[in-house]
Amino acid sequence: MRRRRSSAALALALMGLAPAASAQSGPAPRADHCRSATELRAQDLHGLWQLVLWTGGGSERAPASTGAMLFGPHPEYPDSVRGRLRRSGPGADLEAEVAGDVGDDGEFNLDESADGVAMDAVWNGQPSDCGRTIRGLRRPAEGRPDAGPALQFLLQRAPAGH
Q1: How many structural domains compose the chain?
Q2: Beta bridge partners of 130
Q3: For burial by CB atoms within 10 Å, which of 62, 100, 142, 147 has the most?
Q4: DSSP for 49-117?
Q5: Residue pair 132/157 in contact by the 8 Å Cβ criterion
């Protein structure tokens, strides 16, 4: 677990976050009310998340990649989030812009773009644990086989203070 914490701290330092974004810890669901996946809103995703990715035949205990995502408000779509992804990759760290939401059906959807223009990968998952955990599949966008293989993912809200 130590690696995940250091990845999140490294991601924050290297993302060059604006003060307003880094000050947002993201509103965690209130302790007296555990939001179901269908009750989650974009604001519930704001903040820092730790990331683990692994191959279909692998395990989250033996990740293919680790890193972090930082979500904030999307400037054009109030019911969506926009943010940054930073994760380990073969030979070098990978960075990308991300944007997405949690639909009315409770499904988490995210688009990933390395250049901010072309979509490289799509993420689909299911929130659980009162919205503090999201599990799902990251797969290359249509026509983008160079975006790597399909990978299982686990996103966990970073502990407060990270």
Answers
A1: 1
A2: none
A3: 100
A4: EEEEEE-TTSBTTB-SEEEEEEEEE-SS-TT-EEEEEEE--SSS-EEEEEEEEE-TTS-EEEEEESSSS
A5: yes
In a domain, 112, yes or no: yes
AA letter at 110: L
d(CA 75, CA 57): 38
Residue 106 counted as domain residue: yes
Query: Which amino acid makes up residue 152?
Result: Q
Burial 26-55 (b: 16+ CB within 10 A, else e): beebeeeeebebeebebebbbbbbbbbbbe
Mean per-residue pLDDT of the chain = 82
CATH of the domain at 50: 2.40.128.120
Task: Judge contact between 101 and 82, C-beta under 8 A.
Answer: no
Question: What CA dihedral angle connects 88, 24, 159 and 106, to 10 degrees?
Answer: -80
Q: Which domain holds residue 8?
A: 2-15+38-157
Q: What is the pLDDT of residues 115-150, one digit of tens each?
A: 999 999 999 999 999 999 999 999 999 988 777 789
Position 22 in a domain:
no
Query: H-helix or E-strand containing 15?
Result: helix 2-15
Has residue 60 been placed in a domain?
Answer: yes
Q: How confident is the model at residue 31, as a pLDDT?
A: 52
